[in-house]
Amino acid sequence: MAYITDEKYYTNSNVVPKNLNWGSYQYVSLKDIVNNFKLMYSGDDKLVSNATRYNMLFHAKRGIQEINYDALKNIKILELAVTDDLKFILPHDYVNYVRISLYKDGVLFPLIENFQTNFSSAYLQDQNAEILFDLSGNALSPENSTLDLQRIKGTKPTLYLNNGHPYHNKQGYCCDGEWYFGFPIGGQYGLNTSLANQNPNFRIDKAGGVINFSSEMGGQLVVLEYVSDGMENGNDDEIVINKLAEDYLYAYIRFALLENKFGVQEYIVNRARKEKTAKLRNAKIRLSNLHPGRLLMPLRARAKWIK
């Protein structure tokens, strides 16, 4: 691989963006991974032979995705304002969330996921509850379902302990258009810790590609920390992997090629599988960053007296 000068690293030779190379030394590119594997692990005198470059490239990408899900956890962070419809569009490279927080007064307030349904689709119906269709035979839908409208307007009862909500800590019933509350949640038989959070809550609509928030989040700033698959919008030139996991990726490619090749003895495939598993374990240990200095402060709490 080509190395760069200090000037190139720090200033990118005064070409915008100047921070292009910052931190780049800890990564190896997808192109270098495939080239190195083809040169060092593939050939007539190697265990892997007659493997095409596109096969290596495919399995290299799959290996990078798997290590991102399992060990790398290269967390991306995005801040956006929540609109009046209480929706937050998921990033295009979103795979799973790590933490979702409300940013207010310079402080991050972690939000909890609502285990109740707080969104739904709906169909228009007539007075006989028959679904209405357009001329093409498609069911007609309102802009928002009743469930969505109640959440947006803040009139939906909640089980969560939230002082900012008009129905804090209570589950009620509606009679003649009026709400009555006589059943405090968790107050009579002890606190339900799964609901004990005064911050707003959310639920992710994976099919719709949005996060739906409770009514208190209108106009607020949300910070989303999430995990991507490392594919960088399909641009192979930008895909990289940490050098601490490089050896695992070579083992993954070798195993995947041998497993999908006809005529390879089973003991060879099993040996490659065991090697891949061992390399993955080593990569996880290396990437875990378990240093004594980072453990010192949490371990001091073991001597704390509970009064």
Written description of the protein model:
The protein has 307 residues and is α+β, with helices and mostly antiparallel strands. It has 2 domains: 26-73 and 230-284, no CATH class; 75-113 and 152-227, no CATH class. 29% of the residues lie in helices and 20% in strands. A hairpin with a 2-residue loop joins strand 7 and strand 8 (178-184). Helix 3 packs across helix 6 (266-287). The radius of gyration is 27 Å and the shape is extended. Mean pLDDT is 83; it is low at 183-189.
Name the descriptors.
alpha+beta; 4-stranded antiparallel sheet; 307 residues; 2 domains; 29% helix; single chain; extended; 7 helices
List the helices and strands and how they pair.
Elements: H1 6-11, E1 27-29, H2 30-40, H3 53-72, E2 75-81, E3 87-89, E4 96-104, E5 107-110, E6 112-113, H4 146-153, E7 170-175, E8 178-184, E9 201-205, E10 210-213, E11 221-227, E12 240-242, H5 246-259, H6 266-287, H7 292-299
Parallel strand pairs: 6-9
Antiparallel strand pairs: 1-12, 2-11, 3-10, 4-5, 4-11, 7-8, 9-10
Helix pairs in contact: 2-3, 3-5, 3-6, 5-6
